[in-house]
Amino acid sequence: MQQAHRNRTEVTFAGRENHPPGYIRYRCPPQIGGTVASGEGPVISSNKTCTVIRGRYLNTSKAATGIEGLDDILAGGLSRSHVFLLEGEPGTGKTTVALQFLQAGAAAGEISLYITLSETESELRSGAASHGWELDEHINIFELTPPESLLDADHHQSLLYSSDLELGEATRQIFEVVERVKPTRVVIDSLSEIRLLAQSSLRYRRQILAIKHYFTRYNATVLLLDDLTTEALDKTVHSVAHGVIRLEALTPTYGAERRRLKIVKYRGQKYRGGFHDFTIAENGIHVFPRLVAAEHRSNYSRSQLSSGIPELDNLLGGGIEGGSSTLILGPAGTGKSLISLVFAVQAVARGERVGLFIFDEEMGLLFERMLKLG
């Protein structure tokens, strides 16, 4: 069986010889996120369905977020039919992540639903357009806001009710639109409004549990957004959600603003822990997973690396040993940068790749000085 969506080819292998001509038979890789070699074609599996999206293996038991770095951290994406919490203060990128999550579902032909209690539909569409996205017929937006009749002077105080009646009405509307749309992916934005409606922590917890059990029956993958605007840090949803992702925006005294995320919990799944930097660009979120030294070890030669200066090589016993670390010390103007760069030039001449990290000097000025030295 073959199903084609945008940038996606799915093939399920049903027998030893029963596969389309020209396809190469593979088993699903033991780890998600591996790279498909060029020209090898789609994946065919004898035990489960694998998916190739833009040359990468994905496990179809997980809903890809559409953010490559985040999917790598989550080992493929969010486990389907579960509820996840995405939390962060206003402006940290929650809505952008949520829209990208729904865009990934739409690209795979899935029906999605965005339930908003805080932003209008026009604001969401405008935000999506700023990233070059068009919310097509696969993405439904349900704006859960009070009717216009409540905006007059006599009813302005009732925009958000705290009674059981209004909380139940909001929940009923959510369930009704889900029954009508039958989505595979759902975003609820945000929990702050539901928390205000609930008024008490006990009622709020019961409501979140009811939402969780309801969507589990419908096999929907749900992303709950929380802007952390309450005075006390509320951990109610942490214990209920299958996974928790936290977004942060840091503004240091010196230097540029920094954004980072952390997987707080992910039940029964392996994930890359720690903080991971990310940026919000015109085309969406870009996540840069934290590097783990053990994953980047490679074989290297223990041979001496020459500087190209015979006298210096003689002092070093033939050069710097491959795989070692060398510190060059000296006051300003003694040639530290020059000595390090002659090793880099020789490495390039041998056909090796060189990484150059500069903190105190502008790149163009450095190259200009080196050109003058020949």
Automatic annotation (TrEMBL):
Keyword DNA-binding on entry: yes
Any one GO biological process: DNA repair
Domain KaiC: 61-301
CDD domains registered for this protein in UniProt: KaiC-like_N
InterPro entries assigned to the protein according to its UniProt record, in alphabetical order: AAA+_ATPase, Circadian_clock_KaiC-rel, KaiC-like_dom, KaiC_dom, P-loop_NTPase, RecA_ATP-bd
Record domain RecA family profile: where: 301-374
Pfam families, alphabetized: ATPase (PF06745)
Domain of life: Bacteria
UniProt GO molecular function: ATP binding; ATP-dependent DNA damage sensor activity; DNA binding
Keywords on record: DNA damage, DNA repair, DNA-binding
Protein name: KaiC
Organism field: Pseudomonas syringae pv. solidagae
